[in-house]
Amino acid sequence: MGKLSIVATPIGNLEDITLRALRTLKECDVIYAEDTRVISKLLVRYEIQKPLQRLDAATESKKAEDIIARLEAGEHVAFVSDAGTPAVSDPGSRLVGAVRARGWTAIEAIPGPSALTAAVSIAGLAAGEFFFIGFLPHKKGRQTAIKHIAESDVPVVLYESPHRILKLLRELSQAGVSKVGVARELTKMHEEFISGTPEEIAQSLEARGAVRGEFVVIIEPRD
Ligand code: SAM
Q1: d(CA 176, CA 35)
Q2: Of 108, 155, 202, 209, whose Cβ has the fewest other Cβ atoms within 10 Å?
């Protein structure tokens, strides 16, 4: 019987991979990944040789059909998330949705790293709860989302790219947000966690010249 494994891969440091994830990658018939270059580095490091297929936003419906055909033929398919889990801000959740919609239930999670939980674990949040909203919309609905974040009584955690982080911080500042934590390059050489007002953090990042890295932003409620 075919099986689909959703495998959490590192968010930077290649040592952050579970023994079970490595065994799954060694045992499966084929690996699907959003970015095959990233997963290739991991496979080389752990001396794993497997057929590799790209599954990105442009190809996901077609590749989902291919995967369903493989599962029906009894293959073990591994999908590796892009930069950790929960696989909601990458094609993973839509792939699982498509496979479940066909009534396929042999889907297993191989848990592991997550930029979301890594950032929250070092944020020192006073509240025992948070909302996670993935990436903000780029255009339509963005201002409404920012307003909701600024009014939230619960910390809000989101992902942001280096291209939009300054814009986001300025938008949060204008919406009245006063306390933000920014986790940058988690598990990598230049890992850091910066806290302050959105404007202070924007100035600190701007002062370095080009803004680089991957970001998780934690917006704290007003006191
Ligand atoms: N697969 C995960 C998911 O679906 O939730 C994450 C996917 S998303 C494409 C990648 C985003 O995670 C980045 O834009 C960044 O916001 C965050 N991220 C990934 N690695 C990170 C790191 N090392 N440090 C900080 N943020 C990171």
Answers
A1: 37
A2: 209
**Using 50, 70 and 90 to split pLDDT, how confident is the model at 203?**
very high
Q: pLDDT band for 126, please (50, 70, 90 cuts).
A: confident
Domain 116-219 is classified in which CATH homologous superfamily? Tetrapyrrole methylase, C-terminal domain (3.30.950.10)
Ligand 1 centre from 77 Cα, in Å?
Answer: 23
Q: Which CATH superfamily is domain 3-113 in?
A: Tetrapyrrole methylase, N-terminal domain (3.40.1010.10)
Residue 223 has pLDDT above 80, yes or no: no
Best substitution site from 14, 89, 163 to test ligand 1's pocket, by max atoms within 8 Å of Cβ? 89
- What pLDDT shows up at residue 86? 86
pLDDT digit string, tens, across residues 36-50: 999 999 999 999 999
Please report, for the chain, the start and end positions of each structural domain, with discontinuous segments joined by +.
3-113, 116-219
